[in-house]
Amino acid sequence: MNRSPEVQSALDGVRDLLPTFRDRADEGERLRVVPEASIKELEETGFFRLLQPKRYGGFEADPIDFYTAVRDIASADGSTGWVSSVVGVHPWQVALFDDEAQQAVWGDDQNVRLSSSYAPTGKAVLTEGGFKLSGKWSFSSGCDHCSWVLLGGLVFNEEGQVVDFRTFMVPREKYQIVDVWNVVGLRGTGSNDIVVEETFIPEAFTLSMGETGQCKGPGQAVNTSDLYKLPFHSIFTSTIATPIIGMAKGAYAEHVEMQQKRVRAAYLGEKASLDPFAAVRIARSSSEIDAAWALLMNNLREEQELVARGEQIPLELRLRVRRDQVLGTARAIEAIDSLFEASGGRALAEGTYLQRAWRDAHAGRVHAANDPERALQMYGAQQFGHKVDPGMY
């Protein structure tokens, strides 16, 4: 693969930081936020610019390079991987906004970061030149490290009817962060609440989900790379699955290392590395992790190839991306569960990667993007010839 020197440097830099992220995992859990030093170091590698437009100092990298970096970060610390993923993908969406909004974000500082909360729990009302936005949004991961937020909201007309679903780009001075993140998993993500008192958002600082469902956005007029023609839901749901696959990768590595040293007192001093049943678990788990990753990346590659040829991405493929994304998450968690069960009491100790990965992965599993029944039902319905809304995928 031909990568630009900037992209290769970012990937190399991320790899060099993995031991540091692992060492800081306990600190992140204690602070309930990724340490500022880790965010700064990632910024210095260029990681946050991987999906950013070249017009604003970005690299417009292959998204698979981005996901590979996220997977590796999560293999060192799940919370850092999660925040890196969701904050790192936002430049891709900002590139779809009107250039006026892009200029407001990156015009003075190309290192500006954005957090998000897409569930439409707030309310937007049509008004002249834009919208009046208000409400509370939960689970904005990494928000303490960001100076803008992307918020999902239903748009109401004067009669109180829902007429659209949009993403609203809001600057830091127009929202409050409410510290509510006291949880058992992904503790270091700082996924706090965002509160907006009624404020005006110009239309240029909004993006219709109806448009993104058609792989469109006003920003494509200035950001012409094929990168920005991929389906929103393919990019964003992969962003949620990838850290969990990374956690499974890290859990696998620690489990193998622990079992090589472990002597099982309950089995008359048997070396765990000589236990054939332990070997079977390792083989099955490694296959599940590899399968989850391969399907996720192969589907994205197929979408990229269609875009490169100027062809429309069929709904069946977009639904397949979601099918394999939710099942990839499930495969990764099943692998972690299997390894955790076979690791013995020492895996329960605070500070071990394995117990943290077990908690973090199950916390990530409850994200709406990992709802398996809904995604699988939509795929099956489409196979039976039933109508499926392409805007959802």
UniProtKB/TrEMBL annotation:
Keywords annotated in UniProt: Monooxygenase, Oxidoreductase
GO MF annotation list: acyl-CoA dehydrogenase activity; flavin adenine dinucleotide binding; oxidoreductase activity, acting on paired donors, with incorporation or reduction of molecular oxygen, reduced flavin or flavoprotein as one donor, and incorporation of one atom of oxygen
Keyword Disulfide bond listed: no
GO annotations of cellular component type: cytoplasm
Domain Acyl-CoA dehydrogenase C-terminal residues, every copy: 239-371
GO annotation terms (biological process): fatty acid beta-oxidation using acyl-CoA dehydrogenase
UniProt xrefs under CDD domains: NcnH
Pfam family, one: Acyl-CoA_dh_N
Ranges where the Acyl-CoA dehydrogenase/oxidase N-terminal domain occurs: 11-106
Family named by the database record: Belongs to the HpaH/HsaA monooxygenase family.
Protein name: Flavin-dependent monooxygenase
UniProt organism field: Nocardioides immobilis
